[in-house]
Design brief:
There is one protein chain. The chain is of the alpha/beta class. It has a single domain (3-362), classed as Peroxisomal Thiolase, Chain A, domain 1 (3-Layer(aba) Sandwich). It is 35% helix and 21% strand. It has a 5-stranded mixed sheet, sandwiched between helices. Strands 8-13-12-11 form a 4-stranded mixed sheet, with helices on both faces. The chain has a two-stranded antiparallel ribbon with strand order 2-3. Strand 12 and strand 13 form a beta hairpin. Helix 3 (50-64) packs across helix 4 and helix 8 (214-235) crosses helix 9 (253-263). It binds acetyl coenzyme *A (ACO). Acetyl coenzyme *A (ACO) binds next to helix 2, helix 6 and helix 8.
């Protein structure tokens, strides 16, 4: 029987940090409101595109696995903010890595993209189609937020995380997945003007509006994540008490606490990064996984569950068993180009587009 062990991991968080106090200088909000509702203190704003963040995270994951770039025969790029739709962004990562042999696939299930991608990659390895695959979650959400909409813009950040999966005969890696979608609820979290249905008149194309029903999403997210976690654990014949780590999608600390409470899981077994990075959509799980490995909190053969939900409303969970190695083999000498702007300076032109749109609409 073939399995797909995680042998490498890496993240790339852009340096510019946007705090709640920064946000309160451009909209009617406060650190108190944001932190008490979401557990978020700050988020990162990227000065480069999502595909470049993805390349750096992927290079770091490949080094951690101790592999050469041409050992990789598959690149899966999970994102809802790909830099280009055509060509896809996994081919950008391949080119930047200097890889000549990998199949390249982009996948979008919003915040569940990494979860869907790691489940897909595991299946491709188990089927014998691929042997060594990089799975990436990367987003530049700051680019398409409406910075005049406080309901939505405070919740998100930019970043990327990646893992390397390698075929093995040892029963480790993702051992069960439950994936699904509440398609009837797809309008509770939606954007207009973003995709081939967009109005291509220049001004309106620049501005993207968000439809968002936070409380409805909150309820469905909690339900979907609990059901998916229970399903994935049941399929693997694992009791919830045996789980060493929950690495959930980081949309809101209160959603994570509600899921943990319903599952009877102590918060000290739940990994949290939402305070520092907010919701980076597809990137939250690989970034959080990388952080707790860097903090040496994962032990060999730990049992880990990763629940998520996202626009769609997609939901899911994967149960995985870690392998023997918890230290990286090597580090990549790859960095982002320097950033000479503050986070507020980076979003200023975007905010200007949103403001202009409001003036046009209300005229
Ligand atoms: N600052 C100040 N006030 C705000 C802000 C803000 N940033 N945002 C909203 N408010 C106001 C609203 O205008 C509203 O005011 P009103 O009552 O006068 O109309 C009020 O705050 C709403 O407050 P609450 O009902 O207490 O807000 P709630 O506790 O529901 O928290 C939140 C809102 C954080 C959005 C929550 O519902 C949530 O986390 N939902 C799910 C998160 C989510 O969906 N994330 C994205 C999905 S992931 C993906 O795939 C993209």
């Amino acid at each position: 029987m073939r399995y797909a062990e995680i042998t490498g991991w890496g993240k790339c968080m852009p340096p510019a940090t946007l705090t709640n106090d920064d946000l309160s200088t451009i909209m009617d909000t406060s650190d108190e409101w944001i932190f008490s509702r979401t557990g978020m203190k700050e988020r990162r704003i990227s000065h480069v595109n999502a595909d470049e963040l993805a390349y750096v995270a992927a290079a770091r994951a490949i080094a951690a696995a101790g592999l050469e770039v041409n050992d990789i025969d598959g690149i899966l790029f999970g994102s809802m903010t790909p830099t280009t739709l055509m060509p896809n962004c996994s081919s950008y990562v391949q080119k930047r890595l200097g890889n000549k042999v990998a199949a390249c696939m982009d996948l979008n299930s919003a915040c569940c993209s990494f979860l869907y991608a790691i489940s897909t990659a595991t299946s491709l390895i188990q089927a014998g189609v691929m042997n060594k695959v990089v799975v990436i979650g990367a987003e530049k959400l700051s680019w398409f937020l409406d910075w005049t909409n406080r309901n939505v813009s405070v919740l998100f950040g930019d970043g990327a995380g990646a893992v390397v999966l390698e075929a093995t005969s040892e029963p480790v890696g993702v051992l069960s997945s439950k994936l699904g979608c509440y398609g009837d609820m797809r309008d509770t979290l939606a954007t207009d003007n973003f995709g081939s249905g967009a109005n291509r008149g220049l001004d309106s194309y620049a501005h993207i509006s968000w439809e968002f029903d936070g409380q409805e999403i909150f309820k469905r997210a909690t339900r979907g994540m609990v059901l998916a976690t229970q399903g994935a654990l049941a399929d693997a014949n694992v009791d919830v008490e045996e789980v060493d780590w929950v690495i959930p999608h980081q949309a809101n600390r209160r959603i994570i606490e509600a899921v943990a409470k319903r599952m009877n899981i102590d918060m000290d077994r739940v990994a949290i990064t939402v305070d520092r990075y907010a919701n980076t959509s597809a990137a939250t799980i690989p970034v959080t996984l990388t952080e707790i490995l860097e903090q040496k909190r994962i032990q060999p053969y730990d049992k880990i569950v990763m629940p998520a939900f996202g626009a769609g409303l997609t939901w899911g969970a994967a149960y995985l068993r870690w392998g023997a190695r918890v230290e990286p083999i090597a580090e990549a000498a790859v960095e982002l180009p320097p950033c000479d702007k503050t986070a507020l300076e980076l979003i200023e032109p975007l905010l200007e587009i949103n403001r202009r749109h409001k003036v046009v609409v209300s005229a």
